[in-house]
Amino acid sequence: MKLLKQFWDNFLTIFGIRKNSKYVKNYLNDANMRSAIFMSAVIFVLEIWLILRQTQKYIVPTLQDPNNTYSVFRVIFTNTSNFFLLMSMGFAMFIYSLQYLSKKKTKSRLISTIVFAGLSLVVCALLPLEFQYKSIKFTSSVNTIKGIFKIIFYASVIFFDIGIIFASLYKYKGGKRASVGSVLVISLFAFVCLIFGIMVSYGDFVSVKAVYDSAGNKITMPTDPNSVMYENKEIICFLMFTIYVGCLLIWNPLISIGLLGTLFLGFYFAITGAANLGQRVFPEGDKVNYLTFYISLTMVCISIFNQRVSEARKDEELEELATKDKLTGLYSFEYFTILCKERIAKDNIQQDEWAYLFINITNFKIYNDQKGFDRGNLFLKEVGEELNKVYTDSYISRQSDDHFVIFTKNEEVEEKFHIANERIRAMDLDIKPGLKAGIFPIYNPIEDPHASVEKARYAYSELKHKHQGKEFMYYDNQMHDDYLMVQYIVNHIDEAVENGYIKAYYQPVVWSKGRELCGAEALARWIDPKYGFLSPAKFVPALENAQLIHKLDMEIIRVVCQDIRYNLDNNLAVLPVSINFSRADFGLIDIVDVVNKTVERYNIPKDLLHVEITESALMEDEDLLKDTIIKLHQNGYATWLDDFGSGYSSFNVLKDYDFDVLKLDMKFLVGFDGNEKARSLIKSVIDMAAKIGMKTLCEGVETKEQAEFLESASCGRLQGYLYGKPLSYEDLMKKIEEGEYLLSKDIIFSGARK
After folding, report:
1. Interaxial angle between packed helices 364-371 and 373-390, expressed in degrees from 0 to 180 and rounded to the nearest 10
2. Contact 431, 441 (CB under 8 A)
3. For residue 214, which of 57, 93, 177, 383 sits 20 to 30 Å off, Cα-Cα?
4. pLDDT tens across 137-196, in order?
5. How far apart are CA 197 and CA 43, in angstroms?
6. Per-position DSSP letters for 444-495, written without gaps between them
7. pLDDT tens for each residue of 243-266
């Protein structure tokens, strides 16, 4: 049964009985058009050659014959009219095929197609001359059949010419691919070729040529099947055109078998019936060859069809990968941008007519955590389906993760967003996922869609960080200025690093007891020649979002090590320095390797560098962070937990990770004055850290009261504006030299402790 089913499946596939996708149908139609280019070119060249041949062999001798009574026009018409018809329609088909396969609208091709189709129609209008010159006559059964073939030939050419003119206009106006018009044109073209082949071959087969017997007597009618007259028969024209058509019309093997079978059978009856009309006899050997040729040709058609379908399906799969998001079936982002650009150009979309939406799903992380990634992926697919239902006549793409982008008409954009949001919320009443969006109405239609989407994303980021209560936010002028700054930062980070615009500023750290200077934290500053002092609040998030923050942090490590090396070489105070790493760095670079190589390059003691890791980074990739911290310890570097208390701090962090110093965030000190809860909480954290072997540092210290409390609570180090804001290297060294800071006994001078 399994083998039978497999055989049946293969049979359905080989003979094209299975339904093909729209892509495969278009592929087959395009392949037919490519075949039509070659076939029409061959016919055009062949007909020119035949016109020249007829002129040399018949027209010139006839006109030079003193006994000739025919006009020049009649001689030319009777000998070349059919060839002129095929030549003009062949060229028209050639130009139309090029126009069809081209993505550009070319008026010259349209005009050329119409001109040559019109020329063919002019020749067809001379059909009455065929009767006048007796090229078509009904004096016998054979002549009647020949006349009918010629009339059908003329009629098919007329239908073809009219069809190709309308199909060309339709295509020029932007008609769809694989339209009825294009299929009709190529079918009529094939039909004209076949009728011409039948007409020529039948006319030659039944023609009586003057031959002479051995006695020199003229024989006008065949009486013996072995007569020399049978050597003059010509069937090659019909066979040649069936080969052309068989290889041209490859839509379905059953159509090829049926079409070719009908033609071969009809022509077989015509030429075998000629014997009953007193004409030649079709020899048995030729009948066998005739049948063999038909079978071979159908096999070729089946083979070509299956090869083309196989290629089409492979191309379809590749195009699916390139144009579709595998998870949701929506457009891939790159293909989305291409479609947007084409739609803007095609419809001449103007300012504010359409808008880009950058959409994020709220609570999706919770959904994934509670229901698993498989159900989460299914949810993303369902979201895509709902967006498709709401945003009709729009382009939708899943850009990444739970981020969707939409290009849609600007009218009712807010109303549609509310509808989509309600549908998404209704998909899970417990978790209540929802949508938030940044909206960018296009103001410059020629702007690249990538840039437009980035502006919609920027509007969403502003919504996320500054207006969390809103569902959507439009990109405005202020955002545009900020966006331009972000683009400047992203585009100039390499230049800033190369030219030394990135500086390390040092904020002093003191011991709580004695307030002696014991170290510093290195903070990145960007002093730009165009904009001056750039705020870290601008360039750090911009570089993080662009996945370029590692370039900044690597430069800060280098500058810090360079400054320490300078102090070591010049008998200056050498402070231990803590360096921050962005959470994005851990996925972009090998932090341990970068630190090691920089330390080795400047040959500085490893205990002078402390690596700060932000608590929020631990939520990204726990295994990677644990491995990094272990390697840092193994290589001799102290690790500090930065920003503890800045968000929803978890004591699991203290339990699961091995840090040397716990750095309390300045938010712990908000509301410190007169707030006993804040004091108790801070002291409890400090005590807990001490019990698990961690030292403590509190940043954001601004008043003496805060400092005194932290000292009494046994917090080891203090940092804040009370002891100095971040300073340039030169300013910090100057203050140390002028004695503004008491130096801890741990401070190094050229390797010797003071």
Report:
1. 140
2. no
3. 57
4. 888 888 888 888 889 989 999 999 999 898 888 888 876 655 677 778 888 888 888 888
5. 12
6. -TTS-HHHHHHHHHHHHHHHHHH-TT-SEEE--HHHHHHHHHHHHHHHHHHH
7. 766 666 666 677 777 777 787 888
Give CA–CA dist 16/386, Å, rounded: 35
What number of residues does the chain have?
754
Which tens digits make up the pLDDT trace of 336-363? 999 999 999 888 888 889 999 999 999 9
CA 501, CA 504: separation in Å to the nearest integer? 10
> Counting runs of H as helices and runs of E as strands, what totals does the chain give?
26, 19
Question: Of residues 588 and 468, which shows the higher confidence score?
Answer: 588
Calculate the dihedral angle through the C-alpha atoms of 563, 567, 573, 574, rounding to the nearest 10 degrees: 60
What's the CA gap between 50 and 62, in Å, rounded? 17
DSSP character string of 361-430: EETHHHHHHHH-HHHHHHHHHHHHHHHHHHSTTSEEEEEETTEEEEEEESTTHHHHHHHHHHHHHTT-TT
Alpha-carbon gap, residue 539 to 486, rounded angstroms: 7
Find tokens 């090829």 and name the residue: 256
Q: Which residue has the tokens 């004055």?
A: 673
User: How many whole angstroms separate alpha carbon 436 and alpha carbon 470?
Assistant: 8
**Cα–Cα distance, 308 to 27 (Å, whole number):** 8
Could you tell me which of 7, 30, 171, 159 has the C-alpha nearest to residue 96? Answer: 171
Per residue in 118-137, is it b (16+ CB within 10 Å) or e — as a string?
ebbbebbebbeebeebebbe
Give mean pLDDT, residues 654-673: 78
User: For the CA atoms of 442, 447, 448, 453, what is the dihedral angle to 10 degrees?
Assistant: -30
DSSP-derived secondary structure for 125-171 = TTHHHHHHTTSS--SSHHHHHHHHHHHHHHHHHHHHHHHHHHHHHHH
Domains of the chain: 19-318 (no CATH), 333-475 (3.30.70.270), 485-741 (3.20.20.450)
Q: What region does 216 belong to: left with phi over 0, alpha with psi -120 to 50, or beta?
A: left
3-class SS shares of the chain: helix, strand, coil, % to 5: 60, 15, 25
Structure tokens at 579: 């360096």
DSSP string computed for 535-547: -HHHHHHHHHHTT
DSSP one-letter code for 574: E
Q: What are phi and psi of 227, to 5 degrees?
A: -60, 155
pLDDT of 108 higher than 90 = no
Biggest alpha carbon–alpha carbon distance for the chain: 142
Two tokens, residue 324: 């579709």
Neighbours of 8 (CB within 10 A): 11
Question: And the tokens for 447?
Answer: 């702007």
Tell me which of 12-21, 458-467, 500-509, 514-523 is least confident.
12-21
Structure-token pair, residue 404: 């969707």
pTM: 0.57
Asked if residues 645 and 678 have their Cβ atoms less than 8 Å apart, the reply is no
Dihedral in degrees, nearest 10, Cα atoms 479, 485, 487, 493: -150
Distance between CA atoms of 642 and 616, rounded to whole angstroms? 9
Measured CA to CA, the distance from residue 584 to residue 573 in angstroms comes to 33
